[in-house]
Amino acid sequence: MSSTQPLGAATAAGSRPARRLRRRTWRQALRRDWRLYSLAVAPLAFFAVFRYVPMLGNVIAFRWYQPGGNLFGEYWVGFYYFQEFWSDPSFWHVFTNTLVLGLLSLLFTFPAPVILALLLNEVRSSRFKRIVQSISYLPHFLSVVVVAGIIIQLTSTTGPIDQMLGHLGHAPIDFLQQPGWFRQIYVSSEVWQTAGWGTILYLAALTTIDSQLYEQARIDGANRWKQTWHVTLPGIRPTMVTLLILNIGTFMAVGFEKILLIYNPLTYSTGDVISTYLYRVGVQSGSFSYAAAIGLFESLIGLILVVSANFISRRVVGTSLW
Amino acid sequence: MVAVSETGVAPVGAPVVRRRIQTSRGYRVFQVVNALILTAVMVITLYPFINLLAQSFSAQGAIAAGRVNLIPKGFNLTTYKTVMADPTFWENYRNTVVYTVVATLIAMVLTTCYAYVLSKKNVKGRGFLIGIAVFTMFFNGGLIPNYVLVNDLGLRNSIWAIVLPNAISVFNLLVMKAFFESLPGELEEAAMVDGLNTYGILWRIVLPLSKAVLATMVLFYAVTFWNSWFSAFLYMDNNSMFPVTVYLRNLIAGATGGTDQSASGDTALQVAANIQAVTIVLTVIPILSIYPFIQRYFVSGVMLGAVKG
Amino acid sequence: MNSFSRRRFLGVLGGGIAVAALAGCSTHQPGGASSGSSGAGDLSSNKVGAMDAFAADAQFKATAPLDFGMMMLNNPNYPYKANWEFFTDLKQMTNVSVSATTIPQSDYPTKVGVMVGAGDAPAIIPKTYHPAEQAYISSGAILAVSDYLDLMPNLTATVQNWNLDSDLDTLRGPDGKFYLLPGLHENVWVDYSIAVRSDILQKHGIDVPGTWDEFTTMLQALKTAYPSLYPFSDRWSSTQPGPGANSLLATLGNAYNTHAGWNYQHQTWDASQGQFVYTGATDDYKAMVTLLNSWVNQKLLDPASFTQSDAQAEQKFADSQSFVISANAQEVVNTYEKDLTGVAGATVLKIPVPIGPAGAVNIGSRIECGVMISSSARKSPNFVAMMQFLDWLYYSEAGKMYAKWGVQGQTYTGSVDDGTFKLAPDVNWGGLNPSGTKQLNVDYGFFNGVFAYGGSSNLLNSQFPPAEQVFQKVMNQRKTLPLDPPAPFDDQQQQQTTLWATALLDSVNQNTLKFILGQRPLSEWDQYVSELGGLNSKQYIDAVNQAYQTYKKAHG
User: Fold this and answer.
1) Nearest residue of B to residue A145, measured between CA atoms
2) A275, B32, B202, B272: which one has the fewest Cβ atoms less than 10 Å from its Cβ?
3) Neighbour tally for A176: CB within 10 Å
4) Do the Cβ atoms of C506 and A268 come within 8 Å?
5) Does B23 share its domain with B114?
6) What is the CATH topology of the domain spanning C193-363+484-555?
7) For residue A269, what are the domain limits?
């Protein structure tokens, strides 16, 4: 019975015409698939209670809010906060930085696990493979604070990188003081941290590839490289596309904590992103409404990106999230 | 690191395509290069960990002078003994285990159920059901509304405050859905003919075929819950209910966080670097040791291919 | 106050954008604030457990057993225990027990923000750093404690005896009230200065510097002795709001009559003009930056000082790769000396703060972090008793002594006022009594940052080893400069200036570092000042001066 509520909502979301027809088919669908729908009841309750109810709090993006006052703000201010950040040059600066850093991360962190998984797949000794796999997961378990500590250590003027440069006769570079190096450092550390862990999904997907397809390819005279190209990659394509779309949708959400720990005023020009900027604005005043307004804007961009990526993917490669 | 592997693949792979006759020799060369690349990956990954391990066994003075690299200096077990003698540490540790097990269990049940529904291409309202989930990846409530909700539901200071609000990760949900979709439909049809209903098909046919993805999801959820600290920090008011991550974070921030700027009698003492190292080691090891138990399912997924044929 | 700021806000928005609130009032009725300027209001129904004749220096004891909710910062160095002797003895002495909400130190302000923001905070919220409390004023979530000072005889007496009125003024909002019960010091406590390796100075016959000029000479002499090293490599770069090396900048800023590093504030009071000016654009600030730039140019100061982690700076100092580093009393004992134990003959000296153009002066407030009270506590029948309890614990001599050192004859002997104070033989704190096996804070719960604030100079000095007492004696002889006059923003000014403030601070920080490190020539200073103008530095200062005038008219 409780499953009728979300279904009713679904009807409303559907297209207007042929309403009566739809109603009848809904009844049919329910009668036929009620067991299936019953599986969705608890998850839907979860989304409703723990995701959609708190979302109502976002209304403070349009209302004057005082910490400790009314949860939903005191009174309407319309698009005041949106206009505020829209006309704030600092916002557009950090917005651009966020885009660039997000795109770069996507560009490198997305293919890295695919390549690593393919390399692992070619390893014959299962023992070696297992060891490499297990070790490459390790960085995923480190807290951001520790990772930032490692970065700072490695890039300092007395650190190993500068020592190596010294051997090559190069003057030491203080990497963390150079805006020109910030993106490289950030992106490499992201790759370091995520590549190994990211292979898990691909390795799981690789196990589902039909071994007969390889057999067939071998008979057709394909070498390992061609097998990889024509059998392996298509085999993990749905996984790749799913992850790519998800990554595209979330690429604006660059790592706040890590950046906060490794940037400094000298690298603001490349390293300052929306979340760190909000943090600096927020630390001084607790402007929840301003943050909510920017948060809504970010969310909207993410949603648009994921919907378009999904659309393009469905048209071009035939795989999509929904 | 990527740069290394990328340039590693192309020059080795490309000539293989051109000179077909030498495939086996080229492939052998590739195997060697591949092993080298992967070894390099291991070294780069391992270095900070060995350093951490070495620190955990080292004397404080040697760490402070930056002399500890890969081998402990001033070897001692004192810090391990100190940390392990702290009852709060073990209490919090036990909490972490309990929270992780319960939360993972519930998350797996909910995610599997929903992912299975979503994977059925012809179920009515599917787009809406997916939309509901995807939308929450981008739009979420603020800190305070979430807090008020959990408080009003009376979940504060209970395990449910940690488990329920994080019960479904949309990312995991979509991955699982994609996996279910890739399963051969004929099997389910055959099962239906044999008189199994939806529950039976899910339990008897689909789940046994999905061990690889289930193992992956268990790993993903377990690691997330094991490492999470914010919910516990926010919704628990008592030391004895915190997971060990909150304990760890407090330790680390005590050493790295900004020192009190104001003239206060409570300037943060520096928590010795080796205490941090020991605590990190002790917290990371258990979750790492889950992996070998789960890994075999990655291999067993091969049977799927056989069924498919 | 609520409706007042609301009207102002509507005025700014031209009334067009804003629509009146759906509900007339917020759900959380402010206690003191809502009753306007009338102050405390009727307290007759809030006196359960209170003492009728509570006075300064009297022992507080509730007439009925009471329990107060309290946020409890959990320091990893001495994790909270409910059965600390601090609590059991307190219960015996005052008939009061404490229900603690334990919060890890790492994220304390976050949880305070959420709990107060959700209207769900315990009555007592300690460890609040001004101006954190200001965000909660307009919603009425916290109490205007200045309305209830007559319940707090010890606090009132302390303010009178130590002449703290102008210090308290810095806490006041535009309504003339303050919302924080602050820790009060008898004298300005200077803790941060510079530590040097005195054995190295001695070895090369270099004098301990008394002024910043002599300090430069010292660095040059060290550079001559160790040409391949940076003699000075500094720390404290990750703290807000400064750009890096924040303690050094703050210390230098004081010497140059300006605000820098973690003391940075946008406005500086210019007594000669009788108004505020923009700090980052002043000649004093430029002079300070110029000095630092000359150090970097001569390779006396490690350029990494402004970005490296504390651990890295400490490593260099511990490894004799540098000989000068910023310090406070605890870091000298707990870090520098400890790390150098392996180096034979190494000694560390925290030098008296070198004197600069501002002269031999102490600058700063005698107020430290304090306690907020949730406005919901005002409705409690035990409200009066709670205020008396807080007054005794935080402001009476006996309460401060108890919170800091515990019980006479058990954890300590003697008295701090005649210099006979001594920890008990088996008790240690901060290395004062190394042979003690029990830690005063870990095992007993005393000297806990949640309870031990402020105090007399004698009480403060009792916690220092001899070397630090010498330092304090030198610093106490310097003249203390008067504080800047108050210029509190109202809601609308606050809102308007926040965005300017962030952009301005970013620019000041960025350019301070660029000038110091030579990435931008000092000849471009004027251009930088006009850049600040483009970021509304003038509008910002106008707002400050306007707030100053308004406050002066209303309360001055």
Assistant:
1) B252
2) B32
3) 24
4) yes
5) no
6) D-Maltodextrin-Binding Protein; domain 2 (3.40.190)
7) 84-316
Cα angle for residues A132, A135, A141 (degrees, 5° grid)? 150
Q: Shortest Cα distance from A260 to chain C (angstroms)?
A: 9
Same domain, B255 and B209: yes
Angle at C67 between CA C62 and CA C70, to 5 degrees: 120
Half-sphere exposure of C10 (CA within 13 A, CB side): 14
Residues in chain C within 8 Å Cβ distance of B252: 106
What CATH number did the domain enclosing A113 receive? Answer: 1.10.3720.10
Query: Containing domain of residue B12, as a range?
Result: 2-76
CB-based contacts of C157, cutoff 8 Å, min separation 6 = C56, C57, C395
Could you give the number of structural domains in chain A? 2
Cβ A246 vs Cβ C468: under 8 Å: no
Distance CA B7, CA B11 (A): 7
**C109 — contact with chain B (CB < 8 Å)?**
no
Kindly state whether residues B125 and B225 are assigned to the same domain: yes
Two structure tokens written together for B24:
């086996």
Q: Are residues B196 and B300 in the same domain?
A: yes
CATH 3.40.190.10 domain residues, chain C: 2-9+26-188+368-401, 193-363+484-555
Verify whether the Cβ–Cβ distance A69 to C243 is below 8 Å.
no
Distance of CA C365 to the CA centre of its chain: 8
Contact B134 A145 (CB under 8 A): no
pTM for this model (two decimals): 0.83
Residues A168, A23, single domain; the answer is no
Q: How many CB atoms lie within 10 A of CB B193?
A: 8
Question: Which sign does the torsion angle of CA A16, A20, A25, A29 carry?
Answer: positive
Q: Between chains, do A132 and B168 touch, taking CB under 8 Å as contact?
A: no
Query: Which residue of A51, A119, A223 is in closest CB contact with B37?
Result: A119
Residue A321 included in any domain = no
On the 0-12 / 13-18 / 19+ scale of CB atoms within 10 A, C3 is: exposed
Q: Which residues in chain A have their CB less than 8 angstroms from residue B253's CB? A: 145
Contact C21 A78 (CB under 8 A): no
Per residue of chain C (556 residues), give pLDDT as tens.
333 333 333 233 232 222 233 233 333 333 333 333 446 788 999 999 999 999 999 999 999 999 999 999 998 888 899 999 999 999 999 999 999 999 998 888 889 988 988 888 999 999 998 888 888 888 888 999 999 999 999 999 999 999 999 999 999 998 999 999 999 999 998 999 999 999 999 999 999 999 999 999 999 999 999 999 999 999 998 777 789 999 999 999 999 999 999 999 999 999 999 999 999 999 999 999 999 999 999 999 999 999 888 888 988 999 899 999 999 988 898 889 888 888 899 999 999 999 999 999 998 889 989 999 999 999 999 999 999 999 999 999 999 999 999 999 999 999 999 889 999 999 998 778 889 999 999 999 999 989 988 899 999 999 888 889 999 999 999 999 888 899 999 888 887 888 788 889 999 999 999 999 999 999 999 999 999 999 999 999 999 999 999 999 998 7
Cβ distance C77 to B269 less than 8 Å, yes or no, reads yes
Which of A76, A111, A132 is the endpoint of a domain? A76
- Nearest CB neighbour to B258, from listed C185, C238, C447: C238
Task: Name the residue among A57, A211, A300 with its Cβ closest to that of B141.
Answer: A57
Window B:191-220, CB contacts with A under 8 Å: 197-199, 202, 212-213, 215-216, 219-220
Assess if residue B81 is contained within a domain: no
